[in-house]
Fold each of these.
Amino acid sequence: MQVGDMSKLDQIVFHDSEESGLSSWNAKVISDEKVNREYEILSNIRKQGQRSISSIMTNAEHETLTDRLFKGNGAAIGDSFNLPFHGNGKLAHVFGRRSGPLLSGIAYCISSCSMILLNKVVLSSYNFNAGISLMFYQNLISCLVVAILGLCRVVLVEKLNWKLIRVWIPVNIIFVGMLVSGMYSLKYINIAMVTILKNMTNILTAIGEYYVFRKRQNQKVWTAMFMMIISAVSGGITDLSFDATGYTWQILNCILTAGYSLTLRCVMDKAKQTTNSGSLNEVSMVLLNNLLSLPFAIFFIFVLNEWEYVINVDVIKVPMFWVVATASGLVGLAISFTSMWFLHQTGPTTYSLVGSLNKIPISIAGIMLFKVPLSVPNMFSILFGLFAGIFFARAKMS
């Protein structure tokens, strides 16, 4: 969920697999809440007959919303957002409902922009040439944070078992490859071009869905994907900082990201059958992916002799490097939670459109902060690619 976390920005909605997993989880939580809510209302009526029914319903509703937060439904944060309006619970609840989409959207955009910029700083500005080691450190941070939140019962984490791990291994192998290839592509290519080239993932995913799941796309979607191809090719030709190694890594990243989405969709139902609850929520997937990636990362760190580079490179003696690397790990985890929260507050349509629009400030910030050499044709290629991404999101909605 680090540079691959940028891929994750496209995964939750653009790929039906994750939508299905998240929807089934939310449906189960909402169903349980309704039963608990009815029980609380009847119990309170019996014990406190003098109180008005409307007052009892208001209290039961707030207690249920608070429970949702501490049971691990991070997406419900906006629903349970309360302010002390002199005891007026209804006004606070309405404010939370109205401010939830705005707050979650801002949090989602900030975390997604910060992630790509922080990784670029670590890999390029500090010239750190150990992408696998960086991935290991970031994923370790994610595991520790999720484990602590789970122990404190802030989030609900599914208990892992060997059956689930065996089912998930193919997904995790692709996940690790996706993160590593994303790390190295970002090191060699400017952020704007990475953003444009990642549009190719949508094309590969659509082709894979057609052949694997027989899912057909409408004419607008294919038109948008054709525009993406044009922008990617023209952007590569006019890129003044073109790097063949970086483009190779990015093409590999697009293939692996599409493969991750398709594989996840194939194994999701089977994975749910191996859990105790019969479901697998987003938080559990975050822990599962990051935890299983650690042994693979350690293996490649030793096989590729990255450990020798890490212990000898001077940059690890710089305190600010560790601050930025740690921040990138925390922000990578934040993307998972803010994506889940924003999706719950708004829905797939708004999420996908905001995700496409969010590429614009990321690209602009990348060009300005890292002083990317830019020609007029390359600038138009980037703008055309951003427009193609927005058009693709709107086409998927139709």
Amino acid sequence: MLANPDFKDEMDYVPYQEFNGEGDDAKCQWCNMMSGNWAWDQVDEIAKDPLTHVATGQNDYYPLYASIGNVHNNVRRAHRNTVAVVGFLAILKTAKKYAEDPHFRKFKKQLLHSSLSKILSSLKPAMSVPEVVHFGDGHFRRLVAEDSLTSDDIPLSACSRFEGPIKVFNSAAATFFAPSDLSSVGGMRHEHIRAAPSWWRGPPRLDTVFINTASEDSINGMEVGRVLCFFSFCHSGEIFPCTLIHWFKLIGDKPDPDVGMWMVQPSFHEDGSRELSVIHLDTIIRTSHLLLIFGHDFIEDDITFHNSLDLFKGFYVNKFVDHNSFEIAS
């Protein structure tokens, strides 16, 4: 996230104070994290240690998210990849008569804290010795991770509360305006998007979709992703429908000149792990249809439509599958 150039102008690299008004009438106002008192206090603490001087320049589980504190709030609220899933915490179950048992309650707390300790252990070295990190604005900075923030420092209004477990679904319905295609009354078309672990008692079916991100590096504001699962959770009495997505990135900055179709490939991090995000269901427009990009060699006999998305490295975004897809991907 720190190295993402999309955030270079919407990130704070030092604490700051912002005032509304002039002279004696000026009042301090707070917006982003780095404008708060906590950021200023932490700078003073870091400065005390010479080693950390910073140079200027239907499954049930709980998701664990990580973000960076110095990115602006408007970026975080816009779901622009500033939050990453770093783990899924198990929800322990037992018979109803043992639910309030002190030993079981203690075990749940121990499991939670040990899981968090293991997941976040990779940050521990950077809490005492600064790490050199490449930021999105092109500069390298020495980064010190902070672990002194306790629950007493966090306003209760900022703590997310989930009522009940996360519910996982195998499909979602998309409704969109497509008067040029076969559709129902008013030109509205309906289709189902699948994220099924087993399709007709066979291999999984994980559809690809068009996602409205309004990004410049996209197909007319649309990006392609593969749905890994649909899930929902309840927060403050409101149901939030979400999707776990494996992103596909563009190959080139324009469609292939021979076939007139955009090309995409699955996106991976440097360590080989998939680039995943949790997005709101409403950002998905509809399904996308991908065609395999073949090379000059023969393909293996065991490649089928069930596993081709996992085995091939490049795909055409088929804009000829229907009129609506042609409008999106032209």
